[in-house]
Design brief:
This protein is mostly beta strands. The chain is 4% helix and 50% strand. Strands 1, 2, 3, 4, 5, 6, 7, 8, 9, 10, 12 and 15 form a twelve-stranded antiparallel β-sheet that branches. Strands 11-14-13 form a three-stranded antiparallel β-sheet, with no helix packed on it.
Length: 223
């Protein structure tokens, strides 16, 4: 598996390249150039830096983002020094891509190398019923930092047939074939008792990162 998972690095440990975990909740970027990060994620920096809004990257991406609702508002950070970013004290997990790609739920993106190619694409084989119709794809060689609710598990799909709840699957290799699993009975209630009857099914050589939650809960209406 060419992608490297760095979710359990000791606090403050330096990693190859310029992304490192300050701790499990905070990313440290050794900046000498520019990087793309989630808007509002900067918590501190040392050195000289500029923060600019990053557009959708062309009219095609702008339309995709508007139509699908996928993606995350980004800022481009330029300069030299140490940049610290975080998002709601979520866990942070690092991947180093080596001329390969991952598909990611846009809301889980924290930061990535600016030279990586990004796009919004339909999750092939999943369909509307799976709840995750579009994802963000990142491809190339470089660092990607993702956030998760709780400590996730990374599953090697080459070892066995692999299935995950569509809202819990954070990212997976673009080399995988994705479909829908409908093998359990309609009477089975999974995931918050919602009665949803769909799971994403993965086949091939690659990984799936699954968080320990289906995302933030929505408080019930009181009126």
């Amino acid at each position: 598996m060419r992608s490297q998972f760095f979710g359990n690095i000791d606090q403050g440990q330096q990693l190859p390249g310029h992304f490192a975990l300050q701790n499990s909740k905070m990313l440290r970027v050794h900046l000498n150039g520019d990087v793309l990060a989630r808007q509002g994620s900067m918590v501190a920096f040392q050195g000289q830096m500029e923060f600019d809004y990053e557009g959708a990257g062309g009219i095609g991406k702008f339309i995709k983002k508007a139509v699908t609702g996928e993606g995350v508002p980004l800022m481009r950070v330029k300069g030299q020094g140490l940049l610290f970013v975080a998002n709601d004290a979520d866990d942070i997990h690092l991947f180093y891509l080596e001329n390969e790609g991952i598909t990611v739920n846009g809301k889980n993106i924290l930061a990535y190398d600016s030279h990586l190619q990004s796009d919004i694409q339909r999750v092939q084989g999943a369909g509307i019923a799976a709840g995750g119709l579009f994802n963000t794809t990142l491809h190339g060689t470089g660092w990607v930092a993702l956030t998760t609710h709780g400590t996730p598990v990374m599953l090697d799909c080459g070892r066995a047939p692999t299935f995950a709840d569509g809202q819990s699957a954070v990212a997976w290799s673009t080399s995988l074939q994705v479909g829908v699993n409908r093998t359990f009975k309609a009477s089975a209630l999974i995931g918050r008792g919602s009665g949803e009857a769909m799971q994403l099914a993965y086949q091939g050589q690659g990984f799936v990162l699954v968080q320990a939650s289906e995302g933030p809960t929505v408080a019930p209406h009181t009126h």
